[in-house]
Structure formats: structure tokens, C-alpha cells
Write a sequence for this structure.
């Protein structure tokens, strides 16, 4: 199912939104037992919404730009009255009293939310194995991870259970699973998409973005969810960019930097695909040059001090008082401690402790302060690179999808999965991953395009060229 | 930082307490080893001379954003309280906060 076809047919009354939704729910019913992309499927609600879209069409009114398109939401996006758990025991069963802005916009656009997808607990992880409710499997090979933290959203699209889904990307949590599952994943410019109703992990880095099976579908979705929202104080005061209309504009004259530092440590089959992507862009008229940005190598270390520091503060709110689950004890402090000890999984505890340590007296300057200065160093290095190139090209992930269980015991090796995606988040820039063939093991490889703030239109144009050339 | 003593089990017990977490002895030793490995990796960052750069806390360089001072609907009280672990008389209820008088 592709989005343009669905929307065109539903709007014209040639196909009902109900039948499109039934098809999606049918795929979920037959495939999700094995994949476990979903934590909650909202069949009745989805069919009722679809029927409402069909009535709007029958009445001759405008059903919206995503009329009848099934979509899955990462389980850290609040949906009023529907279970939203962040894949954590501490929030299991929680029903938010409000909708995230992206959810309101999707429903106003006629999209049909079919359910909530699995993720690493509180979006902390790179494999979806940190879910409190069991891992998601990669639809391309069910012994492999789908990546993470938005692994359920990536797998749901890869297994054609839904044409679209939303994830969130703090250090690569959209792009990395998109690459490992063979779908398109976009991390928009910080502030382009409202985060009202996104459960916070690291607030200076988090951003919501789309998964889709094609570049055009991702552009279609991003246009609907982007644009200013007064409810998010970090929301940029601007309209959604025009992306769909420029998808076929090509890359002639565009200056693309093949970033050698985004290939370092990558497997040979991944490197080879990135180099053939560079050739594809060059053949389409772009000027491709190699560029070194050695400062990017410090991104991973800086990120694993900054993001846990922000997380340790954001997750202080889970204290068993106002929402979520409580473990009773004789006084408040003991109740807080028992609730958090039983409610959080190991990775969340590790990050909270790492962040608490980085922020604690005596270590603040050495760790948190130093990492904030390194963040500036990386931002400056990108700015200097973008004086000579319009876009950067590199790997999304160092390898194809790894085996379930391969890295769970060694957090540092898991963290290294994010080495190519993290610098973008530190700078607040946009980047996307587009499938570009397969590796030696037959698993998908994604290549990453990066650009300066608000360069989405350029990124999507280049991604369209790569999508067209991926089969060759 | 590069010449700082590596994080030890005492540090981990202390930060767990600050973060309102209880760890078993096994967890203390496992988390100590894992956190040490992450902090070791951060030594490359510690070695950089960046003292002349301003720290970045936020990519947008935020300034305060205020809305007009107009009354707007807020969340429904009963709906919010329906999700709380314990509610008494329309208020969040918690266990004892202060001890008995001596």
C-alpha cells in the first residue's frame, strides 16, 4: 500500500478507508505474533475512525491529506485515553489525558491510528531489546534485531503492516532502525515537529519523525506533522516546508560531501554501498567530494554524557505520585525508591545513574560541562563543512542488523551502533536514512544524508535520487 | 578528568541513592563495571582543549516563550486524577512524609 494511492482512492470514493484499515489490521493479525512490533492494537477505534472518514467523503467534504491512511505510533507518543507505556513497567496501563500534537494533526488529516509500537524502554537503546514487554524481531530476518529505539515502528512498516509510522530520534532512534529494517526514516530539524505529548528523554536532542516505505510517503507525512505549535516552546515559528512538490527536482549542481568520518569503523559491505550511493548522486549531476570532519568522532562520548544527564532529570518525575504505577512503602522516600527500583529496567537505571554522576558535585565541569563544549565544537565543525558542501553523505549504521542477544550484555558495544547518527542530534540538524541495497548477509543497508538546519527539501530530493538508483 | 580515579562501587551506591534507586550487591558490581567502560570511552572528550568554546545547552539558543495572558481550557481534573496511583478527596495521596514527633 502506498500513501499516494490510498489517499487518491479514498478521497475519490473508489476505495473505503474501512477496507484499507481492515487490510492493515489483517496484516497485523497475521504477522505480529512473530514480529511483535505492536504493544497495543486499536482495532475498534481505528475502524470507527475509518468509518468517519468514509462518511466525510460520502458527504462531499474534504477528508484531509492523509485520508484513510493507517499509521502506527511509537509508544512514547501520548494518545488521549489510549494506553501509552513507553515500553516501561512504571507506566504500564497509563492512559494520557491529552493527545500529542502530532496525533491531533494526523487525525485532523484523516489518518487512521491503528496502534502503539514497541520500543526500547523510554527510548533508551539501539535494538528494542530493552522493552519491558519483550523484543521486536526484524521482519527481514527474525533472528536479528530491528534496531532501536523505534524498532517497532520500523518493523511495522518493513512488514507492510502499516504504510506509515512515527518514531522519535534522540541519537539515531529513527534512522538506525530504518536502516536495519530497510525502510526510510527521517530525523527532522530540531523544532520542526512539535514535541508536545512526546514523553521526554533528552529534551535538547529529542525529535519526532516519520518512517515510510518510500521517500515520497515520508515527505507526505512530514508535511502533515511539521509546523509551529504554541504548545511546544521549542517549536520553530514557521509553516511546514514544501517537500512533495520538489521530490523530482533532482540533484544537478548540488555539492555533496562524502564524509569519511561517517565511514570509519564501518563494515566493508556498508562502506561499499555508501560509495556507490556517492556515484549515483554524481551520475545524477551532483558534485561529490570527499570531506573529513574529524571532530565528529567525539560525538558519541559527548552524547553519552549529555543525554543521560538530561534523562536523569526528565525521569525524576516518575515518583509514584501523579501517574504511572506505585510500589507502596512506609514513607514517601521509600515509596519513590521502591517504585523506581521495580519500575525501571537495567538500561534506564544505567542512564539515570550515568547522568546523575555526570551532573554531581565535583564531576559537573569535567563531564557535563566538557561535553557541552564538545557539542559546540561539533556544531562549529558542521558549520564549516557546510560552507563548502550542501549535503553530507555517510553510513547510517556501521553494520547490518545484528543478532538478538548479541550486544545486550555489553552496553558500550550497543552504544557504538549510534556512532554515525549522533552528531546530527547534537547539532539539531536534519538527516535521513534511505535503503540502498543489501549487505553480504542479505540484510538491508541504509545510507545517511545529512544537511544543515531546515535543509529537508534538499535531503528529500537527494534521497529520491538514491531510491531510484538503489536497485542498480 | 583523564587523571581522575575511575568510578568505584562506593560512587555507584551513592548515585543510586541520589537517583532513588536500590541496587543489589550484584547490580552494584555489574553497573560499576559498565559505567566505568562508558566513562573510559569519554576520556577522548576529556583530553580535548575546548576551554575557549562556549558550552551548548540547546541547539536553538532558547529564549523565554510566553503566551498571551488569556484564560484557556486546561486538562480535565477528574481525567488526570483517574490516572494517579492513589487519590483522596480530589487530591494526590502519598504515604507519610515526616516522622512521628519524638
Amino acid at each position: 500500500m502506498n500513501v499516494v494511492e490510498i489517499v487518491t482512492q479514498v478521497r475519490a470514493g473508489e476505495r473505503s478507508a474501512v477496507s484499507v484499515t481492515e487490510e492493515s489490521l489483517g496484516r497485523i493479525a497475521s504477522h505480529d505474533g512473530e514480529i511483535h512490533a505492536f504493544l497495543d492494537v486499536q482495532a475498534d477505534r481505528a475502524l470507527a475512525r475509518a468509518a468517519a472518514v468514509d462518511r466525510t467523503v460520502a458527504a462531499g467534504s474534504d477528508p484531509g491529506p492523509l485520508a484513510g491512511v493507517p499509521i502506527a505510533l511509537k509508544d512514547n507518543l501520548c494518545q488521549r485515553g489510549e494506553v501509552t507505556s513507553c515500553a516501561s513497567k512504571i507506566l504500564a496501563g497509563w492512559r494520557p489525558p491529552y493527545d500529542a500534537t502530532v496525533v491531533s494533526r494526523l487525525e485532523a488529516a484523516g489518518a487512521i491510528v491503528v496502534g502503539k509500537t514497541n520500543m526500547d524502554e523510554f527510548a533508551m537503546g539501539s535494538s528494542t531489546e530493552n522493552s519491558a514487554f519483550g523484543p521486536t524481531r526484524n521482519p527481514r530476518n527474525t533472528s536479528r534485531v530491528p534496531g532501536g529505539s523505534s524498532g517497532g515502528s520500523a518493523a511495522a512498516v518493513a512488514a507492510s503492516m502499516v504504510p506509515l509510522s512515527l518514531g522519535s530520534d534522540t541519537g539515531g532512534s529513527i534512522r538506525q532502525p530504518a536502516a536495519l529494517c530497510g525502510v526510510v526514516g527521517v530525523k527532522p530539524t530540531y523544532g520542526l515537529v512539535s514535541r508536545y505529548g512526546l514523553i521526554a528523554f533528552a529534551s535538547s536532542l529529542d525529535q519526532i519523525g516519520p518512517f515510510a516505505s518510500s521517500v515520497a510517503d515520508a515527505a507526505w507525512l512530514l508535511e502533515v506533522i511539521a509546523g509551529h505549535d504554541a504548545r511546544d516552546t521549542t517549536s520553530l515559528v514557521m509553516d511546514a516546508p514544501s517537500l512533495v512538490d520538489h521530490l523530482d527536482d533532482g540533484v544537478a549542481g548540488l555539492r555533496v560531501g562524502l564524509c569519511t568520518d561517517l565511514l570509519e569503523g564501518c563494515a566493508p559491505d556498508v562502506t561499499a554501498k555508501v560509495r556507490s550511493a556517492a556515484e549515483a548522486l554524481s551520475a545524477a549531476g551532483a558534485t561529490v567530494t570527499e570531506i573529513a570532519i574529524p571532530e565528529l568522532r567525539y560525538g558519541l562520548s559527548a552524547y553519552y554524557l549529555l543525554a543521560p544527564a538530561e534523562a536523569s532529570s526528565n525521569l525524576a518525575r516518575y515518583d509514584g505520585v501523579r501517574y504511572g504505577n506505585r510500589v507502596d512503602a512506609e514513607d514517601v522516600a521509600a515509596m519513590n525508591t521502591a517504585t523506581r527500583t521495580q519500575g525501571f529496567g537495567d538500561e534506564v537505571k544505567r542512564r539515570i545513574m550515568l547522568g546523575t554522576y555526570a551532573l554531581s558535585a565535583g564531576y559537573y565541569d569535567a563531564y557535563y560541562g566538557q561535553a557541552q563544549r564538545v557539542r559546540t565544537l561539533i556544531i562549529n565543525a558542521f558549520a564549516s563543512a557546510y560552507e563548502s558542501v550542501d549535503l553530507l553523505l555517510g553510513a547510517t549504521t556501521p553494520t547490518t542488523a545484528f543478532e538478538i542477544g548479541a550486544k545486550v550484555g555489553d552496553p558500550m558495544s550497543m552504544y557504538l551502533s549510534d556512532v554515525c547518527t549522533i552528531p546530527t542530534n547534537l547539532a539539531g540538524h536534519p538527516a535521513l536514512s534511505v535503503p540502498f541495497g543489501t549487505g553480504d548477509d542479505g540484510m538491508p543497508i541504509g545510507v545517511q544524508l545529512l544537511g544543515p538546519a531546515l535543509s529537508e527539501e534538499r535531503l528529500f530530493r537527494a534521497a529520491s535520487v538514491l531510491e531510484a538508483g538503489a536497485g542498480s | 578528568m583523564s587523571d581522575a580515579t575511575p568510578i568505584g562501587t562506593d560512587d555507584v551506591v551513592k548515585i543510586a541513592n541520589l537517583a532513588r534507586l536500590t541496587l543489589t550487591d550484584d547490580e552494584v558490581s555489574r553497573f560499576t563495571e559498565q559505567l566505568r567502560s562508558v566513562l573510559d570511552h569519554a576520556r577522548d572528550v576529556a583530553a580535548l582543549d575546548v576551554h575557549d568554546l562556549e558550552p551548548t545547552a540547546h541547539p536553538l539558543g532558547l529564549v523565554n516563550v510566553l503566551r498571551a495572558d488569556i484564560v484557556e481550557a486546561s486538562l480535565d481534573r477528574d481525567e488526570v486524577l483517574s490516572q494517579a496511583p492513589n487519590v483522596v478527596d480530589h487530591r494526590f495521596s502519598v504515604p507519610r512524609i515526616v516522622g512521628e514527633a519524638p
In short: Chain A has a mean pLDDT of 97.
